[in-house]
């Protein structure tokens, strides 16, 4: 009797075990874990971003390479020779060879025509004591030229004056037309020119280049206050002038 009871007890246990492992048979529900409220954290996108490690960015470094700009050399710019030998022109007028070369270069730039720069000289250099010239002709590099037609003294060459002055400036002169009466009552009309860079310029001639009323400042060189604007378009600045220390002083 005892053996039978034990058999039935074991059989019941096996049946119960097999029932628990059978498909579709759920195990008895146990306690479900719920975290405490204070252990639940809300993770915001900003928090995620803040905690992510920095990722190196593959950005390229922009390097600017400055390309120098070059100012075109004005037409006709040629550095004159440094020959200061004095020569006599037109009777008793004296110029240095540097100034003569510049006048001949201006002739080439002017081209064919009736105006001959070497034949129309009215005043040379190295002529101190001429009060009407403000001392500009005391040293080298100063020259005055006629503004009249060689074939007709009564004809002022206004129709060619721009080209005459331009050719002188391209050749390296500061040059202006002096109208009648500009220097004193009834002073004759003429062209006044100062050779830029001449080492023998008088102090007054240097002032006509870089002084308050000077050529490189855009004025006509006359020592008056206020200075008179240049009527022929301002200075022509050649590379050789820059090498000698001259520059555009306008402004």
Question: Which properties best describe this structure?
Answer:
disordered N terminus, four-stranded antiparallel sheet, 8 strands, two-stranded antiparallel ribbon, alpha+beta
Please give a structural write-up.
The strands form three sheets. The chain has a four-stranded antiparallel sheet with strand order 3-4-8-7, with helices on both faces. It has a two-stranded antiparallel ribbon with strand order 1-2. The chain contains six helices and eight strands; from the N terminus they run H-H-E-E-H-E-E-E-E-H-E-E-H-H. Strand 1 (86-89) and strand 2 (93-96) form a beta hairpin. The chain has a domain at 86-243. The longest helix is centred in the N-terminal third of the chain and has 20 residues, at 2-21. Helix 3 crosses helix 4. By secondary structure, it is α+β, with helices and mostly antiparallel strands. Mean pLDDT is 81; it is low at 1-5 and 14-53.
Q: How much of the polypeptide forms β-strand, as a percent range?
A: 5-15%
Order of helical and strand elements: HHEEHEEEEHEEHH
> How many E strands?
8
Query: Structural class of the helices, strands and pairings?
Result: alpha+beta
What is the CA–CA distance across the termini?
133 Å
């Amino acid at each position: 009797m005892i053996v039978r009871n034990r058999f039935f007890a074991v059989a019941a246990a096996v049946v119960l075990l097999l029932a628990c492992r059978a498909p579709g048979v759920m195990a008895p529900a146990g306690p479900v874990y719920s975290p405490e409220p204070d252990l639940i954290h809300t993770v915001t996108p900003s928090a995620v971003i803040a905690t992510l490690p920095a990722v190196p960015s593959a950005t390229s470094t922009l390097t600017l390479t400055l390309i120098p700009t070059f100012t075109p050399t004005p037409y006709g710019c040629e550095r004159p020779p440094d020959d200061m030998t004095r020569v006599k022109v037109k009777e008793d007028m004296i110029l240095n060879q540097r100034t003569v070369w510049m006048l001949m270069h201006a002739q080439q730039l002017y081209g064919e025509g009736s105006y001959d720069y070497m034949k129309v000289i009215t005043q040379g250099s190295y002529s101190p004591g001429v009060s009407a010239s403000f001392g500009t002709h005391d040293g080298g590099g100063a020259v005055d030229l006629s503004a009249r037609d060689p074939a007709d003294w009564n004809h002022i060459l206004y129709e060619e004056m721009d080209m005459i002055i331009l050719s002188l400036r391209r050749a390296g002169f500061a040059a202006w037309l002096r109208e009648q009466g500009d220097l004193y009552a009834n002073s004759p009309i003429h062209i006044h020119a100062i050779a830029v860079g001449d080492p023998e310029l008088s102090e007054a001639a240097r002032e006509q280049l870089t002084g308050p009323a000077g050529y490189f400042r855009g004025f006509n060189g006359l020592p008056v206050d206020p200075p008179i604007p240049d009527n022929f378009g301002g200075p022509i600045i050649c590379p050789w002038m820059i090498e000698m220390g001259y520059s555009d002083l306008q402004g």
